[in-house]
Amino acid sequence: MARKRSGKPPDDGDNSGRKGKGETAVPGGAWAGFFNALTIGLKVVVELAKGDIADAPAVVRAVLRLAGLIAVVCLVGAASLAVLKQPIPAFVLALVVVVLVFIVAVVLLGSQGRTPFTEGSKASVVQHSERKVLIPWARVVPKLPISADAIQALRSRLEAIRNAAFAWLSEHYEGQGVKPAEVRANVFLPDFGQTASGDVCDLFMPDRLRVGMDGAPDENIRFRPRQGLTGLVFIEQQPRVAQSLASREGQDRWEEIYQLTPDQKRQIHPDLCWIVSFPLLIPDRGQKRAGGVLNVDGLVHQLPKNMLDQLMAHLSLAVADFADELARLPKMRVKIELEDVSNGGIHGDCASQR
Question: Does domain 140-334 have CATH number 3.30.450.40?
């Protein structure tokens, strides 16, 4: 009897290398492009994330969290599909990850572009939909009011700085002995409560952040930025010293560069002879900007400038520690925005605008 021939083709060995019906491979070059794009996108995100986005709007932070979560889920899904030999769906999810990474980069860039720190350089023009906004000045400053515990900690540091100054002068000043009451210290912080009147801010001394000034005529004196040595140091962000003009009597004992008003000249202690002034630098997006000013000053004795420079160097580390303590307190960002409402846009170099 004839044997019935089977319709099944003979087995000619291992078929494991064959692709299943309908299975399509993703070209290796496509995967290489994916990994390159992902690497570039992640580098951009990491670099932008170094900036401080804590003050970004809540919607921006929400978008960042959502995009990051979806990207992680898609990346895990792509890896799982690749293991299950589903290359096309895996590649699609991988592309979604790349898109989300670049969305995060754009949002981060936009968030940081809303308040660029442009002081001291050409001010940036930021486009907000149809608006053009110029931001020539911004600062991160301590948020007022400061808690009683924080004020006490700062007061203790300020007293130590004043005592260190007195001890150094007692050792190095060869004139008539300096008395403790003749060396003072104070801290000026920006007060933005007067912005409605058109002033950016006033620099004032909180009640507990002045040592040796109780009852003095200048215990409540205020300065605007660029006014007095305090205002100059706040803007220029470099330590400086000042000496009264010994040749002058009365209220005109300070140089015109300080732009003192008649009322301020009346308030300044009549025996004030010298001031050593430090900017209190607060970190802000990889830079440090003055969030206040610390002064040590002296009455009666007119010290030579080289001695004031030496005193400045002697106190600099203690002042830096004070600034670090101040930087740990709650802060706020203050900025000036100039909005272009014309059709021509904002033109020119605005580096000198304050």
Answer: yes
